[in-house]
Amino acid sequence: xxxxxxxxxxxxxxxxxxxxxxxxxxxxxxxxxxxxxxxxxxxxxxxxxxxxxxxxxxxxxxxxxxxxxxxxxxxxxxxxxxxxxxxxxxxxxxxxxxxxxxxxxxxxxxxxxxxxxxxxxxxxxxxxxxxxxxxxxxxxxxxxxxxxxxxxxxxxxxxxxxxxxxxxxxxxxxxxxxxxxxxxxxxxxxxxxxxxxxxxxxxxxxxxxxxxxxxxxxxxxxxxxx
Length: 226
Known about the structure:
Elements: H1 2-19, H2 23-27, H3 32-41, H4 48-51, E1 55-57, E2 77-85, H5 86-91, E3 95-104, E4 110-118, E5 123-133, E6 140-143, E7 152-159, E8 164-173, E9 176-185, H6 192-204, E10 212-214
Antiparallel strand pairs: 1-9, 2-3, 2-9, 2-10, 3-4, 4-5, 5-6, 6-7, 7-8, 8-9
C-alpha cells in the first residue's frame, strides 16, 4: 500500500508540475497519446535510489568566496541545463529541454526564468522568480518558491561565463542536508573535459557523479517566455 500511495502521489506531482499555470483549462486538451505518454513516464521512479544519494547527515557546506573579479552581470543571459541531480528527475518527469535565463528586473534585482517543454502538453512551461544576490558573497543568491516556503540558497561554484556554470544548492532539514546541483552550458552540450572538471568539484561538495541525470535537450530551439 505504501508503494501504491507513493506512485499516486508522484503521479499527481508530475501532473501538476507539467500543467501549471493553467491546470484545469489544459486538462481538457489531453489526447489519448498524451495520457499514454504520462503512464509510460511513471517508471522514472527508478531514479529514486540515486536521488537519495544527495542526502547527507549534518549541515550544508559553506559557500566559498568567489574570485576577486567575479561579476554576476557576466552570468546574465540564456543557459541550457545539461545535467542535474536525480532528485529533480522525480519532480521534473515529463519535462525536457530545461533552460534558465538570468536577467535584471526593473529594480535591478536578479530575475530567474526557468523554462521547460512539457511532454504532456507539448508546449513551453515557464516559472519566473525573483532572487536576491548576497551583498557579501556575489556568487551566492537566494530564491523562495512560495510564500510559505523558506529561502533556498544557491551558490555559483564555478563558471567561465562564456561556456559553463555550476550551480549548487543545499537545504538543511533537521539532521539532514539535501544537496542539489545543476550543470549549465551556453550551448546544449558541454565538452567532456569541462564536464569532468565540474563533476569533480561536485564530489567535494558531497554530490556524487552517480546522483546526476543528463537533461534531455532534444528539442528544437525555442524562446523562453520573458
